[in-house]
Amino acid sequence: MDIYQEEILDHYRHPRNSGSVENPDIIQTERNSSCGDELIFSFKLADGKVAEVMFTGEGCAISQAAASMLTEDITGQAITKAKQLTPDDVIDLLGIELGPTRLKCALLPVQAITKALADK
Amino acid sequence: MNNPLSPISLQQDFPFLKSGVHFLDNASTSQRPQVVIDAITDYYTNYNANVHRGIYSWSEQASEAYEATREAVREFIGASSVEEIIFTSGTTHSLNLAARLLGQDLEKDDEIIVSTIEHHSNLVPWQLVAKDRQAKLVFLDTNEDEKIDPQTLRSLITKKTKILSITHTSNVTGYTLPVREVSDIAHEFNIIVVVDAAQGAPHQPINVQDLGADMLAFSGHKLCGPTGVGVLYGQRDLLNRLEPVYGGGSMIDKVTLERSTWAALPAKHEPGTPNIAGVIGLGTAIKYLQNIGLDAIHARVDELYNELWQGIQSAEGVTSFGPKDRAARTSIVSFTVAGVHAHDVASILDESQVAVRAGHHCAQPLLQKWGVPSTTRASLYFYNTSEDITALLNGIKKAQQLLT
């Protein structure tokens, strides 16, 4: 199956929540050691929820689209729920099958989000 | 008579290439010809026994095949004796072994020089040994033309410099370093020279005397041999003088509960049951390459590299890295495509059955210098064809159409 579906390309070309939130409560950097990509997530939390989340950093279409989709998904979500994101959640959002190498690209933002919220 | 360098007849030697793959990841690992696969199967099927142990005939046959490879390697790299050939699991193991062996001579504040364009496997082992011996790493940088100027080395040498470890050919750019010039300078100051020939040995005749290498490492799997086998060449006096760093079977002379004495070279540095099938496969691979001829292989790859080089240089939105001097390089090109991440380039190429590497190529410091997290790398071997290069260039265009 072609992994470059229109929706993925759309999120890649026009990433949602691209940038950094003002006065963040958390900043989380996550690196993919196989390609050197780095994503930096910043969060604003309020009332036990993810009030705002944005990201910056370099990445391939898959990691950028995954980050974009996930920030949309978890905005307004309860922290207790958002921190339990799983690999399956991002695969569902992307709607494609990924081999083990490209799966790492998709999981980069999942790891950043779950690490950031782990102690919250 | 078949032209030994006809790519069509050569491709038929390699079962995996029959799948139709455009295999352009040869700097990572090469393909295996049928004769190498057969040699490994023959050992496991017909004379599977340990080496240097049994009195029985199969063990003797295995030992003979194993030691015949040592002689083939000796000749392949121009070593003066089989005592100087140590079998390892690959270049990484060889360079770690070299670092641990030579580390014995290091005192606090001694200096080790490595270049800034090394593969991690010729950097990290020296970081480890420097930390262990409280020695210092000193870096030989490239000039603005991204080449190593031997005179820069001269300016780095101090009374404390003991080791220079340098790659023969860069795994990221295919740039071949002036190894002889730097080793001559190092030897003026009695500095031991270690050469990482992982990328050099598959592509041109290597001679340790001509290079001035006191130690030299290479892998089997990048020159049509099996994975899990490699070589550390060490100058005989050096290997004789240095204590072994791994102990176990085969490497001993006499063992008591308190202490041991060592076997003669090369066994002293080769403990345990080795990768017998791998070594036998390596011997077959070397014979296969020699049958084609290393000079012919170099010429064939260089001819194809002209096409690859020109194709990449003239492709719009594509930037290549490393020395601009085409003559100083061969076989490898690393590039970025504007607006397309290296992983996406590689994924889209994969859809066209083109295999390339995308990432940092185990040379993060070099990519940091270039200011890019990753590049796409295409690397050739003698069985590649113009069609492989066309498929690559078409795939790059496809990636640009899709993602920019």
Automatic annotation (TrEMBL), chain A:
SUPFAM superfamilies in the record: SufE/NifU
Domain NIF system FeS cluster assembly NifU N-terminal intervals? 4-119
Give the matching Gene3D superfamilies.
3.90.1010.10
One of this protein's Pfam families, by short name?
NifU_N
Q: Which GO terms describe its molecular function?
A: iron ion binding; iron-sulfur cluster binding
- One GO process term, biological-process aspect: iron-sulfur cluster assembly
| Stated name of the protein | Fe-S cluster protein
Q: Which organism is it from?
A: Candidatus Kerfeldbacteria bacterium CG15_BIG_FIL_POST_REV_8_21_14_020_45_12
